[in-house]
Amino acid sequence: MKTTFLKQTPHILIYSRLLIAVYFILVAIFKGLQDPITVSICIIFAVLSDVFDGIIARRMKVDSVHLRQLDSKVDTLFWLALLYVLLVMENSFIRSHAKEFFILLALEITLQIFGYIKFNSAMALHTYAAKAWAVLLTLSVLQILSGKNAEIIFYTMFFWGLIAQLEVALIIFKMKTFKVDVSSVFKLKN
Fold first, then answer.
1. pTM for this one?
2. 158: closest CA among 101, 112, 110, 116?
């Protein structure tokens, strides 16, 4: 029983982020739910669940291409839902940094399309640079929600996001066959 539950834990953690994304959309729609502390707690839980789903999946030997792709898709939905709730709750910050958000979104969409065209499959690279970007993105969002000056952490996150996306582009360009979990362009083996 314990082993069965542990084997399902990665899926539970992934789907918990999907539920948080739905909650974020509800927060954006219903103004009475707009509590920065609750949203911040959800963000922290989601990021921790993202860390532990992979660790548990590898330890329980249930990691698979499907699970990694599901993880990436849900992560994308989570971050898009969070961007939507930020647009509602912190409209002035998001609007004043719309160009940077647009650039990062456009890069993400372009790379996903390019990867899908090249390999006929959804990309799920999980690079170290992307993981660092997720940490910076989390810190940036928490700083924005706190109402304090978020410029330094935001631009650090933005430029690191560009670096992470550049690495993903290089990996997709250099990969000859489809792979998931390519930790770095320097570790890519064809």
1. 0.90
2. 101
